[in-house]
Specification:
By secondary structure, the chain is an all-alpha fold. Helix content is 81%, strand content 0%. α3 runs antiparallel to α4 and α4 packs across α5.
């Protein structure tokens, strides 16, 4: 899923993101506001992982959201 879409619909995606990265605080989520680079930085900081690992996690999460969105849209069409 493209990050512009995630950012534009951040409130819809926040719940699932919070499930994935429970160590991020409310302030972190406010700061992130759907922005990829901010999310990567906060994941890196809170989990003590490399930037590459944080980036990989964020991108995998975004892909999963894309697949779930497609599945929901497909189910609605049927």
């Amino acid at each position: 899923m493209n990050w512009d879409r995630i950012e534009g619909n951040w409130k819809q995606f926040t719940g699932k993101a919070r499930e994935k990265w429970g160590k991020l605080t409310d302030d972190d989520w406010t700061h992130v506001a759907g922005k990829r680079e901010q999310l990567i930085g906060r994941i890196q900081e809170r989990y003590g992982i490399s930037r590459d690992d944080a980036q990989r996690q964020a991108d995998e999460w975004a892909r999963a959201q894309k697949m779930e969105t497609r599945e929901r849209e497909h189910a609605v069409k049927q």
